[in-house]
Write a structure and sequence with these properties.
201 residues; alpha/beta; Rossmann fold; 2 domains; five-stranded parallel beta sheet; 9 helices; 13% strand; kinase; ATP-binding; EC 2.7.1.24; coenzyme a biosynthesis
Length: 201
Amino acid sequence: MSRILHVGLTGGIASGKSAVSQRLAEHGAIIIDADQLAREVVEVGTEGLAEVIAEFGQDVVGEDSSLDRTALGNVIFDDDDARGRLNAIIHPRVREAAARLRDAAPEGSVVVEDIPLLVETGQQDRFDVLVVVEAPEEERLRRMGEERGMDRSEAESRMSAQTTDRERAAAADVVLDNSGTLEELHAQTDRLWTELRTQIR
């Protein structure tokens, strides 16, 4: 058995993936958050930010010299070529940072990589266990509107840019159903944690 268990965690936007990640962290999992790393690799003073500016121009930088994510989003929205150029800058740096964190994990750890586009980027085969969080489409649309301030068309656009629940579930070892309450999701996550711990003893 592996001395470190590598777990991939994914799910569609507003599925409740972050709640699962937080619960696993409370149990003692080491969380590697791809979104957080994606922000860190383009912080002020990084090579990542310099390369983004070289590629997309000074208009994507705010007055405080940090990346203006709204401006950058406007540049790459509905432009697959621009999005691909941005991903070519961001993704390799995120994966390098994640690898450093994995390598630093002590023996006996459960390392959970929280990656929104895990299936879309073909990374499912590098994990011991792949966990997918699902929630009904209408519930996800409601959350995006109420919790993130998106109008319905923007929310639907975000969802359509990701793969389907069926494709994610086909790749999954474990599917968590977040159609109920937070307490019910926590209970599923607690059972998952117990099972994950048995795999490294």
